[in-house]
Amino acid sequence: MPVLLVTEIEGQTQAGYESVLVKVGDAVRQSHGFVLHASHPTEQGWRVVEIWQSKEAATLFFSAHVAPNLPKGIRPKISFHQLHNLVRP
After folding, report:
1. Whole-prediction pTM value?
2. Is beta strand 45-52 parallel, antiparallel or unpaired with respect to 34-41?
3. Is 5 within 8 Å of 52 (Cβ atoms)?
4. What integer pLDDT is reported at residue 17 of this predicted model?
5. Where does residue 73 rank: exposed (0-12), middle (13-18), buried (19+ CB within 10 A)?
6. pLDDT, tens only, 1-52
7. C-alpha gyration radius of the chain
């Protein structure tokens, strides 16, 4: 069953988020298990919400592609939530 990944990134800016997305956007679109990605600013920084087919696929992608490209000093807090259902168009 798919998982919802919520990443809270305190201190992240829109420019910082976009700099990471430019580097990993193509890879995430082609990554096995990736379903969707959305993000928005928060009072503390930035939030990324993704759906993946498994926690393992999301963790592997984050470790290989996102973590090495994070701006200096940025330490995201990641939580996973097992989804009960996922409705697609």
Report:
1. 0.91
2. antiparallel
3. yes
4. 94
5. exposed
6. 899 999 999 999 999 999 999 999 999 999 999 999 999 999 999 999 999 9
7. 13
Q: Which two tokens stand for residue 62?
A: 């984050």
In the sheet that 45-52 helps form, which strands lie side by side, from edge to edge? 34-41, 45-52, 3-10, 77-82
Q: Which amino acid is at 52?
A: W
The CATH architecture one would assign to domain 3-82 is: 2-Layer Sandwich (3.30)
Half-sphere exposure of 38 (CA within 13 A, CB side): 3
Residues listed for the chain: 89
Concatenated DSSP letters for 12-50?
--HHHHHHHHHHHHHHHHHSTTEEEEEEEE-SSEEEEEE
pLDDT tens readout for residues 40-72: 999 999 999 999 999 999 999 999 999 998 888
- Residues near 65 by beta carbon (within 8 Å), at least 6 away in sequence: 23, 24, 27, 28, 31
